[in-house]
Amino acid sequence: MSDLRVRLSQNAALLTAIAIFILFYVFYNMNHPRGFSVAVLIQNSNEVFTLAMVAMAQTVPVLMGGLDLSVGAIMTLVNTIASHLLNGSPAQMAFGMGVSLAAGAACGFVNGCIVVYGRIQPIIATLATGAIFLGLALFLRPSPGGNVDDDLSWAATNDLYEIAATYGYAQDGEATWFQPIAWIPVPLVLLVLVVVFIWLPFSRSVTGRTVYAVGSGEGAAYMSGLPIDRAKIAAFTLGGFFAGIGGLYLTLQTSSGNADIPQAGAYTLNSIAAVVIGGTSLLGGVGTAIGSVFGALILRTISFNFRIFEIDPLMQPLFEGVVLLAAVSLGAFRVLRVKNTLELFR
Amino acid sequence: MSTSPSEPAQAHVQLTGVTKRYGGVTALDNVDFACELGSVHAVLGENGAGKSTLIKIMSGVVQPDEGEIRLDGTPTSFSHPAAANAQGIVCIFQELSLLPDLSVADNISIAEPPRRFGLIDRKAQRRRAEDLLARIGCEDVNPMARVRDLPLSRRQMVEIAKALAKDPSVLILDEATSALTSADVDTVFGILRRLREDGISILTISHRMHEIEAIADKCSVFRNGRHIETFAQGARSEGEIVQMMIGREITAHFPPKPPPPEATKPMLQLEKYSWEGKLKSIDLTVGAGEIVGLGGLDGQGQKELLLGLFGVLKGTSGTITVQGKEVTIASPQDAKAAGVDLALIPEDRKTEGLMLPMSIADNLTIASLNRLSRGLFVDQDALTAAVEDGIQRMQIKVGSSSDPVSTLSGGNQQKVVIAKWLMTDPKIILLNDPTRGIDVGTKQEIYRLLRSLAEAGASVIYYSTDYEELIGCCDRVAVMYDGEIVRELKGDEINERNIIASALKMDEAAE
Q: Which residues belong to CATH 3.40.50.300 in chain B?
């Protein structure tokens, strides 16, 4: 087989997810009264970013063959922390953001240590820690509220022009060179930055590869002399960090903190759906966080479509479930092609 | 290299008084052992003789309870496999250590990937994989391919490439050639000879005597955790070695074959049996009481033929006739149903043969539960009796039948797989390389068992990668090439020369 065909066949699930997303999103824009406009794009990217981060957070433990039931809780905890800290002088705000992200990573680190040193299965360890994180979040924000800097919130949730205009970069965003990129929504830029500067380097590091190796065959990974414990802790820590970015962004988007327990649960479950739709195997070893981002995009685009067609919102969970089943069934088509049924069990 | 006692070669790795116990079992008992610089040293012994423990200690997987390891004269110890690797001791394990979801190139460089700016340099990694694959004659393997998608024999070659990538000074092979084709074995031996000339010490565990004869300089025999004897290769006859290994006289390697039967009643007939270009219009008849071997190079359709018969393959064409009745076999459930009565001893006992965490008793009875049931429920008395019967029939060495099957040695695990299928009273028994990685004693028990099953009227189809087995065991050998049966050998025609010639499709040239 040629290299191209090998690449295509190995990334079939990711490519399918991208194609489904494009299909849904173009369909949505064609039916939207202001379809294909920057305003719609900005709104959509705001609505998608947090889930995309939580889905990336879920991907790392799943690649290792475990589920993280605490990603939604970490997001919520970081949301409540950030809602106390994102105000004051620029230095104070920067400090607040740093503390928020560090808190997310710390939650993941705790998960990793419990899994590695407590020898507890990830699904049950994170079920417990998730409840603890939500408890802390409720303690920090018994009722919704918060004090978030308006400029920061505005700049983070609009296009690049608004950042420049708010903080006086590129001649308040009027510089000629700046115009071609001025329309790009900030959350999209953040998403690309996270993927390019965090996910891709991680997946090409020895630790990242060890995460894949553990999901593919932990015994073989150990016998190959790989740093398994370090990789497990790193995987959960990175997951916590991604969830923390999601929580931080949610704070900027809503200008408040809310220890919303049903919301935390919904994010966790949606993150698993996004991971699966994005082509990552729940058995571990196969997939990428980029796929999960597209999984999140697909899930959100479904709800966008619901809005413009004015279908009863009560129908939405039902429809999302159907789409999840359908998307997962696409992966099952290989079953029909497999001529050696023994391969299905490998 | 010289092995005369007057000029002792330098010991590269030396073990002194090494003892290892697992619970109450002494796996290695006060063993002294030395592996010399620039030699190939074969370790022989039955399963449970302590070979695996020996190499696990040398490669850092387990730590000895007593004794000392010296590397180039310096005392050392390895707390984990990576520590042994760091000192140049690299082991190719019997249980494949490859990661199925990663690419060939990823696997080869898994321990020490080439890096740029701290990240894995995929281009360098790919070049390295290409170089190593070329070195072991595997240019056909795409370094980008996932290991999961490769056939077993290629995976084993990737495993060897992975070991070479670590630039070993001591290379340990644990049954590393058992899944390879003969051509690959020759290539690997060529590499081993070159490594030996470079002064690398090679330790190999193999159950194939002719391979040991071909490559080893020295042999050591282990039995019951003790080092029995070390001698220069060739100093002992095959019979003497086997006797040292099992400690009792072996009269015949293979049970005697009955005279070639006159036209027996056909048990299984295949006509124009085809599948996906891997099986091409196969016609084969197997009589009652006959053992038919499948020969040929690895990957010529032998495994597919067995899997197809057992209902695992979809989209087969042609007809299967069992005892005069045409049958359709769409699943293993169909295959073992009354009237078809097939059993398949699969290739990989750990994944296809056994449910490792389940008990020996559960594994033994799992294929015949419907026979042991009354109405909806399993008859516990019948079950207990069946388990005892199975253990006795195959002489499986078990502590308690309620222990997990994973606690048994490889040979005994394989016996459980065979006993499980014998409980279904099969009329046609398919075996896919059942003696891979199994000790000599158990192998011989399997040979005798097959013969007694045949004598009781069953038909046996036996695929083996070891030509000696085909020659010693089979009444007839169908040699396959590229999905076709190119030649059927009978009686005296069954010899190594004919099998190899047919396997390479050299019939015309050879005659």
A: 9-85+172-182+203-251, 265-339+427-511
Q: At what angle do helices A90-117 and A71-85 cross, to 10 degrees?
A: 150
Can you give the pTM of this predicted structure?
Answer: 0.75
- Chain B contacts of A201, Cβ < 8 Å? 119
Tell me: domain B9-85+172-182+203-251, CATH 3.40.50.300, correct?
Answer: yes
Q: With bands split at pLDDT 50, 70 and 90, how would you rate the model's confidence at B23?
A: low
Mutate to test the interface with A, among B55, B85, B98, B102 (most CBs of A within 10 A): B102
| Residues of A in Cβ contact (< 8 Å) with B141 | none
> Could you state, in order of their start, the residue ranges of all structural domains in chain A?
13-331
Q: Where are the alpha helices (DSSP H) in B221-375?
A: 238-246, 302-309, 332-336, 360-365
Q: Does B140 touch chain A (CB under 8 A)?
A: no
Yes or no: say if A86 and A299 are a contact pair by the CB < 8 Å rule. Answer: no
Provide mean pLDDT across the span B47-57.
81
Give the pLDDT score at A48. Answer: 96
Dist CA B284 CA B314 (whole Å): 20
CB atoms under 10 Å from CB of B510, counted, come to 11
B118 has a chain A CB within 8 A of its CB: yes
User: CA of A231 to nearest chain B CA: how many angstroms apart?
Assistant: 14
CB atoms within 10 A of CB A306: 17
Residue-wise pLDDT tens digits, B351-407: 888 988 889 998 999 888 888 888 888 888 888 999 999 999 888 888 888 888 888
Provide, as residue numbers in chain B, all residues whose Cβ is less than 8 Å from the Cβ of A224.
81, 97, 99, 110-111, 162
Burial of residue B402 (CB within 10 Å: 0-12, 13-18, 19+) is exposed
Q: Which residues in chain A come in under a pLDDT of 50?
A: none
In this complex, do A342 and B312 lie within 8 Å of one another by their Cβ atoms?
yes
Question: Would the CB atoms of B93 and A223 count as touching at under 8 Å?
Answer: yes
Give the pLDDT score at B5: 43
Of the candidates B97, B122, B276, which has its C-beta nearest A224's C-beta? B97
Token duo for residue A213: 């190796």
- Tell which CATH classification among 1.10.3470, 3.90.70, 3.30.2000, 2.40.160 matches the domain A13-331: 1.10.3470
Residue B371 pLDDT: 84
CA distance B204 to B386: 40
E strands present in chain A: none
B38 has pLDDT over 50? yes
What top-level class would CATH report for the domain B265-339+427-511? alpha beta
Q: What are the residues of chain A with a beta carbon less than 8 Å away from any beta carbon of chain B? A: 1, 3, 6-7, 10, 201, 204-206, 209, 212-213, 215-217, 219-226, 281, 284-286, 338-342, 345-346
Give the pLDDT score at B259: 77
Say whether A285 and B101 touch across the interface (CB within 8 A): yes
Residue B21 has pLDDT above 90, yes or no: no
Q: What is the pLDDT of residue B9?
A: 55
Using CB atoms, which residue from A204, A220, A224 is nearest to B120? A204
Report the gap between the CA of A174 and the closest CA in chain B (Å): 37
